[in-house]
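dumping this here so i dont lose it
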């Protein structure tokens, strides 16, 4: 791996997501050797993946090189590798590029798409968890438009223009809104040979309302916004089967569709090697104590989505969103420095800053602890927070420019099939 041997304690971090990056930044230029390992050479800002899928942004504005994050960290190293196994008995991990020893190991591997064991749906649907997957969705949508333009029958055309999104959490709701904007603003101008009324967007949700983790106020407002945009919302509905052409639901609905986008859930992405009892089977998350230490291990920790810390306020663990990951990453960095100096670590307390989702132009919902609101102001708040949360000044400027341009011109500029998607 070519990591220099030093007298400094070595902290190995698996995963450069929200938690891993915050941790790396907290440990910068301290008396430690830090090794960050990720299977991608960039950090992904997942909350804006849907804008890449719907041609609103290019991927380079929501991804950021991990090496650039650590360029001024003198004792931090990055290695592009997939971690395959942990050997806790001799403090080493096996990766796709070799074995490395650690004094402290932090698992920050996040989650992967959960198909709930349905292999047919997995084989035919489009997940949206990474930049390549978001680009695949973008290509497929645009390819479908092109195929619809030359389809021989109405039925064939509608199959290309029917978009089914499964899961009406923030991701599904945001994507449905963005695809509806493609229908309303782009189709009539760029595809004069298509009739926008032939295009249908179906959003399926198993729960009784959209945005189930948010307030009822947010759900009602979001559903209204979606309906206004022309999205067909189907609650209490889940997919029974999808063979690549036909979607079947538990409520006996059937849609001919070439595109099923799966935004229905995630499960942890653990690494093999730790005792079976530290992994919670249902969610694939590691059981951690209030210091993010994995139960039964003194020097192995988990942070972010992969960690399940049961507290009085959150008996089933914290929500799998960016803020707990960022806050845990920061505190763990501070705690490691305390631990190395033999000082007591501080327990994690989550500061819930609220949640939000956008449905489209001028349309968003925000739930704060004591205040809920929706509409233009919520949309403005959503944009501001997401812009400021992006990693890197360049990315913020590019996204700001793109959003301003799109707002003025009702446009989505990244409508390019760079890498055609093959089913
Ligand atoms: C489409 C989408 C939209 C979202 N929208 C929002 C939102 O609007 N607001 C919000 O707060 N949250 C949102 N989330 C959730 C949020 O992105 C996650 O909660 C957050 O990313 C968790 O951070 P993390 O550091 O735990 O994991 P991640 O950010 O997922 O990072 C994990 C990292 O580990 C790496 N990795 C995994 N396994 C290995 C391995 N074996 N070897 C090497 N590297 C590995 C991955 O490449 C990745 O870089 C969204 C998620 C998705 C998928």
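and the seq i came up w/
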């Amino acid at each position: 791996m070519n990591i220099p041997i030093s007298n400094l304690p070595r902290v190995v971090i698996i995963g450069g997501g929200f938690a891993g990056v915050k941790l790396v930044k907290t440990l910068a230029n301290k008396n430690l050797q830090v090794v960050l390992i990720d299977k991608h050479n960039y950090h992904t800002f997942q909350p804006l993946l849907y804008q890449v899928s719907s041609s609103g942004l290019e991927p380079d504005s929501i991804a950021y090189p991990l090496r650039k994050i650590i360029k001024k960290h003198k004792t931090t190293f990055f290695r592009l590798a997939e971690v395959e196994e942990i050997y806790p008995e001799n403090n080493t991990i096996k990766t796709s590029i070799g074995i490395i020893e650690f004094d402290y190991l932090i698992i920050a591997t996040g989650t992967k798409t959960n198909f709930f064991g349905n292999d047919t749906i997995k084989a035919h649907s489009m997940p949206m968890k990474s930049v390549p997957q978001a680009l695949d969705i973008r290509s497929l949508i645009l390819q479908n438009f092109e195929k619809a333009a030359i389809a021989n029958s109405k039925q064939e055309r509608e199959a290309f223009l029917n978009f089914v999104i499964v899961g009406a959490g923030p991701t599904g709701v945001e994507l449905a809104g963005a695809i509806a904007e493609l229908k309303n603003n782009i189709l009539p101008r760029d595809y004069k040979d298509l009739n926008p009324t032939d295009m249908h967007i179906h959003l399926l949700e198993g729960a009784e309302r959209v945005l189930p983790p948010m307030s009822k106020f947010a759900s009602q407002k979001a559903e209204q916004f979606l309906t206004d945009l022309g999205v067909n919302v189907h609650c209490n509905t889940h997919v029974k089967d999808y063979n690549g052409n036909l979607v079947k639901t538990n409520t006996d609905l059937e849609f001919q569709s070439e595109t099923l986008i799966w935004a229905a859930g995630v499960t942890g992405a653990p690494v093999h090697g730790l005792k079976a009892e530290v992994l919670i089977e249902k969610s694939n998350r590691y059981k951690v104590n209030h210091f993010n230490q994995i139960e039964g291990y003194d020097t192995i920790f988990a942070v972010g989505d992969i960690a399940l810390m049961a507290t009085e306020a959150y008996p089933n663990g914290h929500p799998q969103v960016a803020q707990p990951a960022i806050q845990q990453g920061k505190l763990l960095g501070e705690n490691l420095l305390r631990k190395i100096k033999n000082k007591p670590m501080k327990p994690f307390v989550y500061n819930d800053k609220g949640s939000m989702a956008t449905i489209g132009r001028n349309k968003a919902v925000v739930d704060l602890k004591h205040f809920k609101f929706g509409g233009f102001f919520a949309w403005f708040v959503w944009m501001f927070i997401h812009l400021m949360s992006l990693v890197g000044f360049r990315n913020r400027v590019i996204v700001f420019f793109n959003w301003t341009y799109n707002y003025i011109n009702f446009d989505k500029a990244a409508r390019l099939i760079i890498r055609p998607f093959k089913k």
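Residues 14-20, 37-40, 46-47, 49, 82-83, 108-110, 128-129, 170-171, 269, 271, 304-306, 320-323, 325 surround flavin-adenine dinucleotide (CB under 6 Å).
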